[in-house]
Amino acid sequence: MRKGAKTREYIIMQAAELFNQQGYAGSSISDIMQVTGLRKGGIYNHFESKDELALEAFDYAISRLSRRYAEAIKGKTSAIDQLISIVSIYRNIIEDPPLKGGCPLLNTAIESDDAHPALRERARHAMNQFLKFIRIVINRGKRAGQILSSVDAESVSIYIVSTMEGGVMMSQLYHDSTYMQRTLENLTSYIESLRT
């Protein structure tokens, strides 16, 4: 990898954590300069605008989260075990977040409501992909006879993701993973109830 590409990647990584902790609107170019150790010209040499950097930083954060999901289900043949593994990623959300600042999808979805349409669209796309991933696991489990055939994959995927993100929000609000742990206990019981 060339030096310029390495620098660009470094800026994206640092900005992703900064935006995830302080928000896009709450992070100035001076903040980006501080976390990267670069001058303004060094940043704008690689990105046309803070908006472009925000989109790439979000994509990077989501790719890290996606890798965690893929690692969680690796080697698990049961759809139920895969679902439980996916939600267990958040068991210690405060102590071991996927990215400093918590769930980048939740944080971006909340912040980008109407203030940043392009970022909001990226968050919607990422959420659609996550819901699709959960649906695929559920439908695969139904076909394999591991999950009850009466289960509606779309409704269950929405329930799982909404419950999980609610637990993340509570844990972040109170700086206490206990909220997520309790959420996961109930969510795990629910997922187990889908087993044939």
From TrEMBL:
Statement: the UniProt record of this protein carries the keyword DNA-binding: yes
Residues in HTH tetR-type domain copies: 5-65
Hydrolase is among the record's keywords: no
SUPFAM superfamilies: Homeodomain-like, Tetracyclin repressor-like, C-terminal domain
Record GO terms (molecular function): DNA binding
Keywords tagged on the record: DNA-binding, Transcription, Transcription regulation
Name listed for the protein in its UniProt record: TetR/AcrR family transcriptional regulator
Highest classification ranks of the organism: Bacteria, Bacillati, Bacillota, Bacilli, Bacillales
